[in-house]
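Input record (one chain):
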Amino acid sequence: MDTSPKRKAIEASAFVLFGFGLSQVIRLAGNIALTRLLAPELFGLLNIARVFVVGIWLFSDIGLGPAIVRSERADEPVFLNTVWTLQVIRGGVISALCVIIAYPVSLVYKEPKLFLVVIAIGALEIPSAFLSTALPLLNKRLQQRRLTQMELAIQCASLACMIATAYFYRSVWALLLGELLGNVIRLVWSHRINAECPNRFALEREAAKEVISFGKWILLSTAMNFLATQADRMLLGKLFTLGWFGVYSVAINLAELPKQVVSRLSSSVLFPLISSYARFPREELREKIRKPRGKILPLVALGLALFSCFGDIAIRILYDQRYDAAAWMLPILAIGMWPLVLVATVDGCLLSLGKPKFIAYGNLAKFLYMLVAIPLSFKLWSYKGAIAAVALNDIPSYVIINYGLKKERLSFMKQDAWSSLVLAAATAALLGARYALGLGFPGDPLHLFGR
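The corresponding structure, as predicted from the sequence alone:
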């Protein structure tokens, strides 16, 4: 049997893509069912609460999973137990901080229901804090088959619980109960994988020093990542009505699908693979990344063009009239994902080389851009102006991360340019085909839906 890194990477990529594709089909079906049962305001409420919990989670992230993936001590029980102990401590801190911020958040957004929802989402972190280190080890060894099977089974159980509960109780608690069930199943499953060498509380000084030394830039990077990726939710949650914010949540979740495909491949396959090549000469490392990236980007570009040109039709078919505004939001947000897709396929290089500071600086630039652009655009051009500002938010981070790659002699700018031409050509061709079919342009009202 061929066990070469290339063969393992191909197999892992296949399972990641299969798992992600099936997961999104399940997610979409569940989302459609839940939007029929629950009002848009409930999705808006949950997304506002989740922004702050995710913020605490990211501001406390010292890269425990990536530390296992890149460490040469990943097979030593004392190292794994130290990482697990730090993970449990972090989970407890996150849950406690959620209790502390719950009331102020409810005051800022003038929504009393947020108080209990924020506390509940924080409590969901408790099962996650005790997850076995077997999961990042499977990722390190590119054993994506087992991870994919586990996550799909958990998703189905969690979604079934959400739908059943929402059918009887039209409340935001239906969504949280399903998530809790999924987290508990994942916890039990992870420890069954690790049954022969279970995690125990331990804190070895050298192991903790290695993790924290690697994690200090991860902490800054993920903190900046929170500000960069959640600033739109924080700002729009304040600027938009709760109903409009719920509609935006539907549109942005769909628009981020291409990015999620690439991010999943990057974290589950490219990062472990690049970590194994990190000591190679720069030119050789660059070549090993350039070839698979050159195959991925044109395919993503075609998918993104198709999504941005015809995604609004899917919105009108799958969702009722309350979500019609998502039809014009989706094309704008989808095409704006391209710079992020380009970055997601190469930022693992900087992480593997121990240079995550450029990722942190890029995320900071993105956050500062949104802090100014979103409120200003909303004031000048209302909802469409704010959505356009969100669509352009990845350009600052793209520039800075590519500056870092150039300094490390790992620039992929030429490959980016060719892939962008593929995206532009595909988008133009699909827009022409759509117009020729009498469907107008993306976001236009379509008479065939009778609304």
